[in-house]
C-alpha cells in the first residue's frame, strides 16, 4: 500500500520569532557635518539603524552643538532628522544645548532659556511623537513634568528624567530672571525625584536616562536646594538618589547619560552601572544595548556594543 503524505504535513513547525530585546541610545548629535552624513538614510549610522532590530531609539538631548544659535529653524531641522531615524518609537529628553545654553554671549541670536525650554517641549513632543511613543508597553508621562516618561521593555522598566547640563539650569543664567530659573530648577528636582520614587517594584531591572553627566561634573560643593541656589552642586542630589535607589531595589540599574565626550561605561556599585552614550564631537556613533537573562541572582545583564563597528564597549569611564 502506498501512503501519500502531503508536503505541508512534512514541513517543520513554524519557528516563533525571537523577541527583540535590544534598544538604541544616542546623545549630543548632530553636531557636525560628519554626524549629518552618518545619520542620513544612506549614511553609515542611518543604514545600521535600519538593519538592526531594536525596540526603540532614545536620544538623550543636545541635538545641536553649543556653538550654534537655538533658532526655530535649526531646532526644527534637527528634530525632523532625528524623528525619522527609525520606524520604532523615538524617545527624547532635553539637554542643555537645547535650552539652558541658548543665552550664551557668543551666540546670535540669544534667547531666554525658559522660553526655549517651552519651545523645545512643544516642538519635540508633538502629536506624531506621542502616537508612536505611546505604543511602548505601559508608556506614561509625568503629569507635572510631561517630558519625563516611563515604559516597560523586556521585563525592564525605563524612565527618563529631565536633568540638563549647567547643573540642571542653575548656572550661567544670562537672560532669564535668575530667581525664576532657580524656582524652575527646584521644581525639576522635585518632579525628577518623585518620578524615580514611582518605579515599578515588579520590574526585573531599571534603566534611567537623562542628559547631564552628573558624575564627571561633580564638585565638592554642597547640594543645591531652595535655600542654597548659588555656588552649589546641582547634580549631587541625583548622584545620592540614584545610589540609594540602586541599593533599595537590589536589582540591576543602568544609568545612561550624554553630555561629555567619552563613549564608556563604569561600575558604580554592585548593581549600578553608568553608560556615557556616544556623541559630543568625539564619537559619531550609537550604543546598542542588549538585555539578556543572567544565570546569577541579578537576573538581567547589559551587553553594550557600538552600532557603527558592532564591537563590544570596553572603554571604562574615568
How would you explain this protein's 3D organization?
This protein has 318 residues and is an alpha/beta fold. The chain has one domain: Purple Acid Phosphatase, chain A, domain 2. 28% of the residues lie in helices and 21% in strands. The protein contains nine helices and twelve strands. The strands form two sheets. The chain has a seven-stranded mixed beta sheet with strand order 4-5-6-7-8-10-9, with helices on one face. It has a five-stranded mixed beta sheet with strand order 3-2-1-11-12. A hairpin with a 6-residue loop joins β11 and β12. It starts with 6 loop residues before the first helix and ends in a 12-residue tail after the last strand.
Offer a concise description of the structure.
By secondary structure, the protein is an alpha/beta fold. The chain contains 9 helices and 12 strands. It has a single domain, classed as 4-Layer Sandwich (Purple Acid Phosphatase, chain A, domain 2), CATH 3.60.21.
* Apparent shape: globular
Class from secondary-structure proportions: alpha/beta
The quaternary organization reads as: single chain
Number of helices: 9
Q: Percent of residues in beta strands?
A: 15-25%
For the sheet with most strands, the description reads: 7 strands, mixed
- Output the helix-strand order: HEHHEHEHHEEEHHEHEEEEE
Instruction: State the share of residues found in helices, binned by percent.
Output: 25-40%
Q: Can you name the CATH architecture? A: 4-Layer Sandwich
Q: What is the domain tally?
A: 1
Unreliable spans are 1-13
